[in-house]
Specification:
Elements: H1 2-7, H2 13-17, H3 25-36, H4 41-50, H5 57-70, H6 75-82, H7 90-105, H8 109-112, H9 118-146, H10 151-177, H11 183-189, H12 196-209, H13 212-222, H14 227-238, H15 245-253
Length: 261
């Protein structure tokens, strides 16, 4: 595998890619390194798709680090993979968006806004909007389950809320990518601060710097105690309605997340 990577020949990409799932970590990591040595979009796509096959954080971090090392040229490939029909898991999406932000951070501020085309930014905005809709739907599920007295349903509501945090991070990453100043990325690190003044500063940054089409429906999701506002937007904007818990469970069983199922 090491030698195949050094040859930098695209005819070996599929063979190398087949070893990313190997049970032995040293084989997996040699395969990752070999693909990273091949400076072709096809090899970079193989690395990105490999993230969906891996569970070991060391392997995942190795791939994202190699993508960062590949530089700005890999950003469009990542965005295309993120927004493809056979989309990655939300955990992988968050990791890839963080990777884009890390690449952008290495560039001068005046280049950060031009390296990603308008069409690609539009794809990211659509992804953020889809995640926001998903979060509102999940909060409606949570509200329905919390209205029940069965402890098992309360536990399920907490599990869904944990999953929602990944989607919130996805939206924050997209907002951060579109903010060359870095203010939103800083605000994201303070998003869970219990201090009301810090929270107010975070929301102000999002409102002033973030894309209006995203933040107007996103900020209420960060104010979780304001359930009436969340319900109002969910009903008016997305057409969601409270449901019996039985209907919620049926929908969750059809969720693509196998762990949630």
């Amino acid at each position: 595998l090491y030698i195949l990577g050094q040859l930098k020949d695209q005819q070996f990409i599929e063979l190398i890619s087949s070893k990313i799932e190997h049970p032995r970590p040293e084989v997996r990591r040699t395969a990752i390194q070999a693909l990273a040595n091949i400076p072709l979009p096809r090899a970079q796509r193989a690395l990105i798709r490999g993230l969906n096959l891996l569970k070991d954080e060391t392997d995942i971090n190795l791939i994202t680090n190699k993508l960062v090392e590949a530089g700005p040229g890999v950003i469009n490939i990542i965005i295309n993979e993120l927004t493809a029909e056979n989309t990655s898991s939300r955990k992988v999406q968050a990791a890839l968006l963080t990777t884009i932000r890390r690449i952008l951070r290495q560039l001068p501020k005046n280049e950060r806004t031009t390296i990603i085309s308008y069409a690609q930014r539009e794809k990211l905005e659509n992804l953020a909007q889809a995640e926001i809709k998903y979060i509102y739907q999940r909060y409606f599920f949570i509200f329905s389950l919390q209205g029940e007295t069965k402890p098992e349903l309360s536990f399920l509501a907490k599990v869904i809320e944990e999953k929602v945090e990944v989607s919130i991070n996805i939206v924050l990453e997209i907002l951060g990518i579109n903010d060359p100043s870095g203010k939103i990325s800083f605000a994201a690190t303070r998003i869970k601060d219990s201090d009301e003044h810090v929270q107010a500063d975070v929301f102000e940054i999002l409102e002033n710097v973030g894309q209006q089409a995203i933040v107007e429906t996103f900020i209420p999701l960060l104010e979780k105690e304001n359930t009436e506002r969340i319900i109002q937007i969910g009903q008016q904007r997305f057409g969601f309605k409270p449901q019996p818990f039985e209907h919620v469970i049926i929908q969750l069983l059809n969720d693509p997340d196998p762990w949630l199922q």
